[in-house]
Design a protein that fits this description.
P-loop_NTPase; MoxR family ATPase; alpha/beta; ATPase_AAA-3; 2 domains; single chain; 11 strands; two-stranded antiparallel ribbon; ChlI/MoxR_AAA_lid
């Protein structure tokens, strides 16, 4: 493990937690998504610092950031860009859209129609945009954080399960506690005063090459064969839950895809790396299981009628699959 890379990310994590108070779970998962080269779907009520979190992350990296407000009248070309006709020479020139940034916030993704959602998810999956017969590669450092608002669902377009599977993790954010709320009020008051404009800690933005080197370090962490099997058994339990419990078998219509196995391994590695270890433990896998699996499981109507949630199902799977 490279000490300089780990030190840079440790400092970045401190900075994020000082600027985004009371959302340590979200900031940790943003860093894990960055290290695991994946994308995040975040759900939470308005005002819970979702936008602030990814903007703050961008300020800690040598990377550009763009926020896209998804609305019902948005078109795919508004996201990807389009060919512009040049009357001077009768040619077409491609004008890049906002998707060609390193960090992209897709705000309220469920308010855009299916064609726009598909354009974004294609870019996430293929890391390129195709206009006509030409494909344009996206930046190597590329992270999308899409948000959903759990209230005001009228006029929204819910993401189909197959599209949800493209997101590495699903994160639900909740209101901060009393002490965090006090700290938020104090921080905002300080930031409004010019004498408190200096950053809480000295932070040097992390270059792209350091992020890519950290990703390689994450992939080099030791993962024992027993834990590899444990990850596979957890995912298989979402597909064949009746082997573990009759109730679990009644709760699920479809289990997690192979993307879940890949994602759970990479997230567990990133979690261990951020903890300063050079090996993956069962606790790393369990810490990431809900975020990686819950949005990939399609519950039965019977389970929904009984008030069973995907998180409850994943908890039951974790309780029943033997830990090596």
């Amino acid at each position: 493990m490279s000490g300089s890379e780990h030190s840079a990310f440790h400092q970045l994590q401190q900075y994020l937690n000082q600027q985004v108070i009371g959302q340590e779970g979200l900031t940790l998962r943003l860093l894990i998504a960055l290290l695991a080269d994946g994308h995040l779907l975040v759900e939470g009520a308005p005002g819970l610092a979702k936008t602030t979190a990814i903007k703050t992350l961008a300020s800690g990296l040598e990377a550009n950031f763009h926020r896209i407000q998804f609305t019902p009248d948005l078109l795919p070309a508004d996201l990807t860009g389009t060919d512009i006709y040049r009357p001077q020479d009768g040619s077409f020139r491609f004008q890049q859209g906002p998707i060609f940034h390193n960090l992209v916030l897709a705000d309220e993704i469920n308010r855009a129609p299916a064609k726009v959602q598909s354009a974004l998810l294609e870019a996430m999956g293929e890391r390129q945009v195709t206009i006509g017969r030409t494909s344009y590669p996206l930046p190597e450092l590329f992270l999308v954080m899409a948000t959903q608002n759990p209230i005001e669902q009228e006029g929204t377009y819910p993401l189909p399960e197959a599209q949800l599977d493209r997101f590495l993790m699903y994160v639900r954010v909740d209101y901060p506690d009393v002490e965090s709320e006090k700290k938020i009020a104090k921080l905002v008051r300080q930031q409004a005063q010019t004498e408190f404009s200096k950053l809480p800690i000295d932070l040097t933005p992390i270059p792209e090459k350091t992020v890519l080197a950290a990703r390689q370090a994450v992939l080099n962490l030791h993962l024992s064969p027993a834990l590899e099997e444990y990850i596979v058994h957890l995912v298989m339990a979402t597909r064949e839950p009746a082997k573990y419990s009759e109730d679990l078998g009644r709760w699920v219509r479809f289990g997690a895809s192979p993307r879940a196995t890949i994602g759970l391994e990479r997230c567990a590695r990133a979690h261990a790396w951020l903890q300063g270890r050079d090996y993956v433990s069962p606790e790393d896998i369990q810490a990431m299981a809900h975020n990686v699996l819950s949005h990939r499981v399609l519950l039965s109507f019977e389970a929904e009628a009984d008030g069973i949630t995907p998180d409850r199902f994943v908890s039951e799977v974790l309780a029943r699959v033997a830990v090596p």
